Amino acid sequence: MELAADPRLSVTTHPVVGGPTVGPSLNARLGGLSDYPFTRLAALLVDVTPRSNTTPLMLSIGEPQHEPPALLAQALAAAPLADWGKYPPTIGTAPFRAAVHGWLCRRYGLPASFVDVDKGILPATGTREALFQVALLATPQRKDGRQPAVLIPNPFYAVYEGAAALAGAEPVFMPATRETGFLPDLDALSPDLLARTALMYLCTPSNPQGAVADLAYLKKAITLARAYGFVLALDECYAEIWDKAPPPGGFEAALALENDGAGQGQAGQGTANLLVFNSLSKRSSAAGLRSGFIAGDPALIQAFTRLRSYALAGNALPALAAAAALWGDDAHVEENRRLYRQKIDAAEAALKGRYGFYRPAGGFFLWLEVGDGEAATRKLWGEAGVRVLPGAYFTRSEPDGSNAGRPFIRVALVHDTETVARACETIARVLG
Ligand SMILES: Cc1ncc(COP(=O)(O)O)c(C=O)c1O
Fold this sequence. Notes:
GO terms for molecular function: pyridoxal phosphate binding; transaminase activity. This is Aspartate aminotransferase. Keywords: Aminotransferase, Transferase. The protein is an alpha/beta fold. It folds into 2 domains: about 30-65 and about 330-430, Aspartate Aminotransferase, domain 1 (Alpha-Beta Complex), CATH 3.90.1150.10; about 85-330, 3-Layer(aba) Sandwich (Aspartate Aminotransferase, domain 2), CATH 3.40.640. Helices cover about 40% and strands about 15% of the residues. The chain has 15 helices and 12 strands. The strands form 3 sheets. Strands 2-8-7-6-5-3-4 form a 7-stranded mixed sheet, sandwiched between helices. Strands 9-12-11 form a 3-stranded antiparallel sheet. The longest helix has 21 residues, at about 330-350. About 45% of the residues are buried. Residues about 1-5 have low confidence and may be disordered. Pyridoxal-5'-phosphate (PLP) binds near residues 126, 128, 157, 203 and 281.
């Protein structure tokens, strides 16, 4: 009663307690998204119970199971307690940027000046959030007078689609099938589409197919980004997990363009239009550290820093120190690769000649063509407790309802070699 007498509160009339309620309005773009792949998997398997004598094997999630390097725990333990009390800086720390820069130069043979150590690198709290936010950075209201397009490989990492749609762009899918070498055919993109493209995501090595883009391919993608004025977001988070040869990276391609000379019109462009995303989740089996980086075009990094000063949660200083230690060390990564190769050998022994098996050039997933991915997933879970993901959950259907991922399953080779061998033998036995 006293409140009603307050003139500040009687100016507007608010609904009274017990009166009609109105639900909060939400971002309608959310409704247009597919359910996340793991949500769809849970729904698919809700009524399937593995036989009682099976031990469930989770080959559905790409979470490395190797023990993270001791270096990680040592660096965390060495951090001053007071550092946990500090807010993480958006631009990270100088030692973090120097360690990433050192790794980029080592890994891709870059001259020190090619990626600006202070203005060309930002920490990411895992690449997932950064890959999401880049769509907010890159999408204008209109591009070429129309709704902007964000180009996404199909199949794709689900975050790209959510990011594009929530940024107000139209996600446009680029088929990446066996016929196109499991990478999008860049020559098939029409000038009309490219003109309204704000952002192109590419993933190399690709998830789920393990395909690697060669240098010529990456050069073409960068050249298109520059010709049509869009951001090229290269997701390279599997770049360190490779079978026979290290996958080339976006910076190597940008450097090659630079060295090709003025005749190509690319000299002096440096890292223009390019952002590279990488992470310690796969390289160092440290998904829980939530630590990655974004690197590239200093103008984009500057604008991204501005956006991220509003949006970033950030890595605590001890986590940045641990990340710096990990980027500075290659020995543990070599050991990781050795273990992944053993797993792929085991998978090859069990599955060669079936389901279109091939050794992935990079990453640790098998992309197996089993006829009907959903039916195979249910069968494997019910009969053997082996959990995989149907390919259709990575792949957007065409307007005619066809879905290039439907015949596939994705199998994550992240457990120890013996478990992987057993799981792959089980897949062959159950699916026949
Ligand atoms: C293709 C791809 N990109 C990015 C990520 C994100 O990884 P993180 O946020 O752990 O760096 C993943 C994780 O599985 C992925 O598969």
